[in-house]
């Protein structure tokens, strides 16, 4: 059911990964990777609370999405069934009183960064993970 979606995600990831060594900012000294986490929800007495963002869909938007799903049923397709701009144009034509609500402003946690000299660190971490867990990935 999800094979087409997984294939598309894999192709997208490969495309993005292939750009990892292209410097897009002229005048900078190199390419760096920033590793981050974003807090999604609060915890109240050990229970997960509200997520930081709630997205609202009108009944008409839900029907539009349901109709699209009914048409394609998650099937793997050889070509795009419709263009992304058409989808957003259609979604935008459906009236919506409130699009989203932010319950709180989440903290962006920067956990680290890497540059072209950091490759050895990741190779060591992968080797340690494989040795400790027996993982083959």
Structure overview:
The chain has helices at 3-18, 59-72, 84-93, 119-133, and strands at residues 33-38, 41-44, 47-51, 53-55, 100-102, 108-114. By secondary structure, the chain is α+β, with helices and mostly antiparallel strands. It folds into two domains: 21-49 and 105-136, no CATH class; 53-102, no CATH class. The strands form three sheets. The chain has a two-stranded antiparallel sheet with strand order 1-6. Strands 2-3 form a two-stranded antiparallel sheet. The chain has a two-stranded antiparallel ribbon with strand order 4-5. The longest helix is centred in the first third of the chain and has 16 residues, at 3-18. Residues 1-7 have low confidence and may be disordered.
In short:
With about 140 residues, the chain is α+β, with helices and mostly antiparallel strands.
- Residues in β-strands, percent: 15-25%
Radius of gyration: 21 Å
How many DSSP helices? Answer: 4
Count of the separate structural domains: 2
Question: Which overall shape is indicated by the principal axes computed on the Cα atoms?
Answer: extended
Major pleated sheet: 2 strands, antiparallel
Biggest sheet strand order reads 1-6
By DSSP, the count of extended strands is 6
The helix-and-strand class reads alpha+beta
Q: What proportion of the residues is helical, as a percent range?
A: 40-55%
Distance between the termini: 24 Å
Provide the succession of SSEs: HEEEEHHEEH
